[in-house]
Amino acid sequence: MYREDQKLELKLELTKDIKKEIVAFANTNDGTIYIGIDDDGKVIGLKHAEKDLEALSGMIREGIKSDLTLYTKIYIENIEEKDIIVVKVYEAPNKPYYLADKGLKSSGVYLRHGNVSIQASEEIIKKMLLDSSNNSFENNVSNLQDLHFEYLINLFEKHNIAIDNNKFKTLNIINSSNKYTNLGLLLSDECPYSIKCAIFNGNNKLEFKDRKEFEGSVLKQVNETFEYLDMFNKTKGKIVGLERIDTRDYPEYALRESLLNAIIHRDYNFTGSILISLFDDHFEITSLGGLVKGLNIEELYNGVSQSRNPKLANVFYRLKYVESFGTGIGRIIESYENYEKKPLLLSSENLFKVTLYNVNYNKNNEIKILPTNLTQEEQILEYLRKNDKINRQIVEALLDVSKTRATNILNKMISDDILIQIGNGKNIYYVLK
Question: Are 93 and 135 in contact (CB under 8 A)?
């Protein structure tokens, strides 16, 4: 005879309400749900058990956050010659779990209390979030224990920071049981995560210019990736009065901070790589894991920040890779304050993307910035060597000059027998003589 209690729930048939029971067990204690048995414990069975099993799998994957796939088992069992669905739910580590359509609030978070599932109070939800943060990925014991730290040790010595076994414990690389933590795994030479970079010709992904993958300690990855990206961060120069002003395609701070942000704040429960794409007109960096629970994009734009991996952030802080906690996104935005197109931040349940725009990119006919050591006339000639013709608007954009100045330069090149003017009015263009 089956009877509902703290660890057992009975359901006559599959309904959407079952998600509430699964969430309650995951948030409270291991439990089992039988579908096809009524409240009195009588085995009724299911007419379409296989179809119901498939539907149930979708409910768990899509209807509950965070993902409980690893903490549930569902299968068909024949009891009294009738098909029953058995749902085994294990108490899961990343609480609170909640109904996706209700969100992280009382109406979406449930607990098991006796033989019923009840809504969690806001106070309990806050406590669960706090407890979960103390049980974070970086605190857990690494599955790999044969780890080496050659890069980390050399880097600390370079920064005149003493490093020994006690320091490893202080930094939480080693826990109180002398086991390497997942933080240690990230900092080790055996780190299994990577960064993949792709440089594209143009503004789409049709043609690769270059690509590279960076592995090893996350400290090694951040240094090597930044050096690689820096090679493609071109400089454009222009003369203002008697002074020459050089401008990088991407503000160096924004590029560096976007990279650091992706490494420090990504969710390492996902095993995929950080993806970086560099186009002619913009740069994208995508890391796994959305925003930390309770944080939204608007708050991020306003300077509010919460680290998913505070101990990893602390290591970067000690190395002075980051100047202070929680200011990175705000300073990325500030670095674009004098430019029209601002950084774009996008977040979903499992992804976070930062898009930076090339401040030197010329929209007009997708002109590419030419070498900065050329004179204005030489830049026009260089453009015409690659294109059949040029007009005044292109010259304005190419040289970043006014309409009047562009016209004067073109007229001078005509008088010097370098260019020929063709057409009239708005259709005027220029070709090499």
Answer: yes
pLDDT digit string, tens, across residues 74-119: 999 999 999 999 999 998 877 899 999 998 889 999 999 999 999 9
Q: In the chain, what are the domains?
A: 8-134 (3.30.950.30), 195-357 (3.30.565.60), 368-432 (1.10.10.10)
Threshold 0.90, pTM exceeds = no
H helix count then E strand count, the chain: 14, 18
| Pair of tokens at residue 4 | 């509902």
What is the β-pairing status of strands 235-240 and 243-248? antiparallel
Residue type at 115 in one-letter notation: N
Handedness of CA 405, 410, 416, 418 (dihedral sign): positive
Residue of 125, 101, 100 lying closest to 111 (CA atoms): 125
For the stretch 301-336, pLDDT in tens is 666 666 788 899 899 988 988 765 556 787 888 888
User: Left if phi > 0, otherwise alpha if psi is -120 to 50, otherwise beta: which for 90?
Assistant: beta
CA atoms within 13 A on the CB side of 44: 16
Rounded Cα distance between 79 and 254, Å, is: 62
Give the Cα separation of 286 and 266 in Å (integer): 9
Q: How far apart are CA 321 and CA 304, in angstroms?
A: 20
Q: Return d(Cα 185, Cα 179) in angstroms, integer.
A: 11
Quote the CA–CA distance of 322 and 344 in Å, as a whole number.
21
